[in-house]
Amino acid sequence: MEELESSNVGDIKTYSQKASTIRKNGYIVIKSRPCKVVEVSTSETNEHGHANCHFVAIDIFTSEKHEDTVPTSHICDVRHVPRVNQTHYPLLDISEDGFVSVLTENGTTKDDLKLPTEEPLLTQVTFLLKAGFEEEKDIVIFVMSVMGEERIFALEEVGTKGALSA
């Protein structure tokens, strides 16, 4: 893997890499969105001596499909996987408009995370919130952040109320 140049995109580090070295299950930035590559195909060399890479990738937050075709020698922004921040917070409360209140590591509350509304997380959220939160169970919210965007990607019941602070 040839690392050519470092740059910042949002709150993550990216590095530039030749398109021909990017593989399936890798990460790439397409249309300023962090994506996981699900398909890569390379065209035959054309009459001008150039081949192209066609990428099909899925936005890691919205699950939208993005495609891009670039020359194999083109330099692409690629995201380091460890730069995707994943953290978890104890759930404190849920507002009527779907925002959650969570407790951060430094003891403050964070109130700007919205509950997911897309499947399959919607089913998990509905079940946990009815069976867990309302029955005084501790629930942990797992959050992924990259490029200045945060999303809840999982929830987990961890015990009865107060077990997290004990």
Automatic annotation (TrEMBL):
<dbReference type="GO" id="GO:0003723">
    <property type="term" value="F:RNA binding"/>
</dbReference>
<comment type="function">
    <text>Translation factor that promotes translation elongation and termination, particularly upon ribosome stalling at specific amino acid sequence contexts. Binds between the exit (E) and peptidyl (P) site of the ribosome and promotes rescue of stalled ribosome: specifically required for efficient translation of polyproline-containing peptides as well as other motifs that stall the ribosome. Acts as ribosome quality control (RQC) cofactor by joining the RQC complex to facilitate peptidyl transfer during CAT tailing step.</text>
</comment>
<protein>
    <recommendedName>
        <fullName>Eukaryotic translation initiation factor 5A</fullName>
    </recommendedName>
</protein>
<dbReference type="InterPro" id="IPR048670">
    <property type="entry name" value="IF5A-like_N"/>
</dbReference>
<keyword id="KW-0396">Initiation factor</keyword>
<dbReference type="InterPro" id="IPR001884">
    <property type="entry name" value="IF5A-like"/>
</dbReference>
<dbReference type="InterPro" id="IPR020189">
    <property type="entry name" value="IF5A_C"/>
</dbReference>
<dbReference type="GO" id="GO:0045901">
    <property type="term" value="P:positive regulation of translational elongation"/>
</dbReference>
<keyword id="KW-0385">Hypusine</keyword>
<dbReference type="GO" id="GO:0043022">
    <property type="term" value="F:ribosome binding"/>
</dbReference>
<dbReference type="InterPro" id="IPR012340">
    <property type="entry name" value="NA-bd_OB-fold"/>
</dbReference>
<dbReference type="InterPro" id="IPR008991">
    <property type="entry name" value="Translation_prot_SH3-like_sf"/>
</dbReference>
<dbReference type="Pfam" id="PF21485">
    <property type="entry name" value="IF5A-like_N"/>
</dbReference>
<feature type="domain" description="Translation initiation factor 5A C-terminal">
    <location>
        <begin position="83"/>
        <end position="156"/>
    </location>
</feature>
<dbReference type="GO" id="GO:0045905">
    <property type="term" value="P:positive regulation of translational termination"/>
</dbReference>
<dbReference type="Pfam" id="PF01287">
    <property type="entry name" value="eIF-5a"/>
</dbReference>
<keyword id="KW-0648">Protein biosynthesis</keyword>
<dbReference type="GO" id="GO:0003746">
    <property type="term" value="F:translation elongation factor activity"/>
</dbReference>
<dbReference type="InterPro" id="IPR014722">
    <property type="entry name" value="Rib_uL2_dom2"/>
</dbReference>
<dbReference type="GO" id="GO:0003743">
    <property type="term" value="F:translation initiation factor activity"/>
</dbReference>
<comment type="similarity">
    <text>Belongs to the eIF-5A family.</text>
</comment>
